[in-house]
Amino acid sequence: EEFTNTVLHNPPAREHGNKTHNCFPRAQMATFISVPLKKSSEVDLVKPLSKFVTATYPPGEEQTEYLRAVEELNKLRKSALGRPLDKHESSLEILLRYYDQLCAIEPKFPFPELCLTFTWKDAFDKGSLFGGSVKLALASVGYEKTCVLFNVGALASQIASEQNLDNDEGLKTAAKFYQLASGAFAHIKDTVLSALNREPTMDISPETVGTLSQIMLSQAQEVFVLKATADKMKDAIVAKLANQAADYYGDAFKQCQYKENLPKEVLPVLAAKHCMMQATAELRQSALANQKKKFGEEIARLQHATELVKTAASRYDEYVNVKDLSDKINRALTAAKKDNDFIYHDRVPEVKDLEPIGKASLVKATAVQTPLSQKFSDLFEKMVPMAVQQSVSAANSRKADTVNRLIGSMREATNLCNGVLASLNLPAALEDLSGEAVPQSILEKSRAVVQQGGLQSIEQLIKDLPELLQRNREILDESFKMLDDEEATDNELRAKFNQRWNRTPSGDLYKPLRAEGNNFRSVLDKAVQADQVVKERYTAHCEMIALLCKPENELSAAIPSANPAKTLQGSEVVNVLRAQLAQLDEVKREREVLEGEVKSVTFDMTTKFLTALAQDGAINEEALTASELETRYGSHTQRVQQNLRRQEELLSQIQVSHQEFSALKQSNSEANNREEVLKKLASAHDSYIEISSNIKEGTKFYNDLTEILLKFQNKCSDIVFARKTERDELLKYSLTVGNSLIFLFLFQTQQQPQAKPQPPARPPPPNITPQAASTSAPISTPVPPGSTNPPPVAPPTGPSQAQGPPYPTYQGYPGYYQMPVTYNPYAYGQFNMPYMPYQAQGQAGYPGGPPAQQPYPYPQQPPQQQPYYPQQ
């Protein structure tokens, strides 16, 4: 902190006796390394993201806003990556905004399911005569973020290297952007492997970006050395800053020694900078020794500085200019020797015996914390993260289960009640004491059947079921055919190209999709069985249902007459039975009210899930939802249980009273025949209501399944299209490589008679900013004798290894698109609405769940484990 304050507050220079060390010329260290930008292929973000938005959010203002935001995001990517960027802060601001936006939308869109592939080229690979440069394509937004952040660091290094280091503002700006670049590369080093889940290209490998981060930090420290010198800081301060910079450059050199993908000019620049910064530290420390009257130490340090400068001048003069620094050291050494020889006669110690120079670091890699841009504004600010959407979907599923359980138990109780009364011929038996007229309850049931369409409506619905089934089978078969055709093509090409066909086999990739499709096929098979059960039930009751549809006079004629039982009218047992039936009707009406109340309960867990995600970084959906459900439905559950217990008691009492009634009633064959027909009519009415409800639910089931299968078909179509695009690129590359090898063989054959082989092409120089350079020199660096901080030695430059594979290996398609949760078309009439993921509040009803005793339900569709964005 002391050194930082000293450098930034520009204190005056200090005189050292008869010697004042002015700032060394900046031209001597004006070569700075900058990093080239990665290049990306064009990607259309609009189509896949818009499909997700339209499939997830209902038409309206919210959907329109998100679609507009998708367009803006696509424009932002084109501005950031689709054109050359100036070495200016405004260009960097665009990159920062795009990176921040990627970080903001990553948790809000299901990118693994969007088939959105990003392709980037290696920044340091310049290609070859026979092939393009190394590139990698991945369906991963983490990969896109990594590459964009690499460009942030690269552009920051370029902006820093363009600064005018002769003024204070330029020095501050350069130091700022070098530290930003260092932080960007360091962040990639820590996150790239987890972001990609595969081997990256060499430019963004942890080893390479770690080296780049160290280089940027070294250059930032050097800029502070220049600033301290320009501000005429104390010699002790500048010496420590320069010695720290030398250490940084030495570390960068060691990390860079075996990075064959980096330009060959980087190593000698780092080695030269190491020597020069150490020489600067020795020069400044010699002035401090002079002040302390340690003239021998002064000469020893200047001699060491001279050796370091000579090393840089003789071996790295092509990359840096050390003449001014060398002249400064030589003049100081000549004066010091003259004074010591004639006046002081101080012993000159060995370099190894000198006290080490201290170190002081003023730089630190800027941590990557979003938002990086101060002007960032999230285009999708109102969209909730996918984790919240998934939790809301799961919570709605639990809510649906709770509602279905409550309503299912009540409707099951109603069915049980109706069945018991029908078996006892109640209330018809009490209404038929005369034995001649049609009981009023039977007439009401007859009118109800006629109002709902009678036999004709049921027959038409049953007739439509096979057509709906066939439509679903055709969609499913076409989906499998697309997968089969693409897989067959992939197998043929794999057999043809062998190892060059380096992508995931379609058979492995399509396993989740095929499992999902087989699951749909199993559901259809079970639905066929349910259809058959409905038809058999209809066949068993159609005769009595047809009788209920007849006019009253025909219905009365069809019911056998019996001897009158007028003696039972007004008896106590009849009155008790009627009172008990009235109480039972009241219990049933109470259930109807209670069912309406249960269905009307609404609540939204989004806010609670967002709060939990912000506070804890995770959502305990099960615990939060269970607590909310208990609060909302606890009292309803208790009332349902009380109602069921009350019905059970009443049914028991009615059965006892009916036994007494039957014992008092005159028994003969005519009366028994009449009662049997009345029972069948009552049962036919209940069966008609149930069959009609079941067939309507079956029709709805097939229609809902059609929408789901169409989305499944689109998903198959999307992945097959993505595989075809990938196949075309890989096929083009494989053919290009094959032709190149043939051409290379012919070229080498033609060149064999020549005596003198052609030298290899010289790689291009790095993107650096030389402000002074001279002639070329060898690159090896001997260690000066007695050096406490020896300069690094550049290794021989070897050929770069090819980075492969050049085309992506598809990571596989995400999990199933599940069918509506616990949907059962036989459950509870119109209450059963298919539950779809990502629906806004109030957009759909609750799915129905069958009671455990339900005998012939339609097949249960599997619970949704992970919401899927439906493709269109």
Question: Please, could you describe this protein's structure?
Answer:
One of its GO terms (cellular component) is endosome. Pfam families: ALIX_LYPXL_bnd, BRO1. By secondary structure, this protein is an all-alpha fold. The protein is 61% helix and 1% strand. The chain contains 22 helices and two strands. It has helices at residues 2-8, 46-56, 61-81, 89-105, 141-161, 168-196, 206-230, 235-256, 266-291, 295-315, 323-344, 386-423, 428-431, 440-451, 454-497, 506-509, 511-548, 552-558, 572-600, 606-616, 621-664, 669-751, and strands at 118-121, 135-138. A two-stranded antiparallel sheet has the order 1-2. Helix 10 (295-315) runs antiparallel to helix 11 (323-344) and helix 12 (386-423) runs antiparallel to helix 22 (669-751). The longest helix is centred in the last third of the chain and has 83 residues, at 669-751. The protein is elongated, with a radius of gyration of 43 Å. The chain starts with a helix and ends in a 121-residue tail after the last helix. Mean pLDDT is 76; it is low at 1-29 and 741-872.
